[in-house]
Amino acid sequence: MIHNGIEYGDMQLIAEAYDVLKSVGKLSNEELKKVFSEWNKGELLSFLIEITADIFGIKDDKGDGYLVDKVLDKTGMKGTGKWTVQQAAELSVAAPTIEASLDSRFLSGLKEERTEAAKVFKSGGFGDILTDQVVDKEKLIDDVRQALYASKICSYAQGMNLIRAKSIEKGWDLKLGELARIWKGGCIIRAIFLDRIKKAYDRNSELANLLVDPEFAKEIIDRQSAWRRVVCLAINSGISTPGMSASLAYFDTYRRERLPANLVQAQRDYFGAHTYERTDMPGSFHTEWFKIAKNINN
Question: Residue 57: which of 76, 80, 40 has the closest Cα?
Answer without folding.
Answer: 40
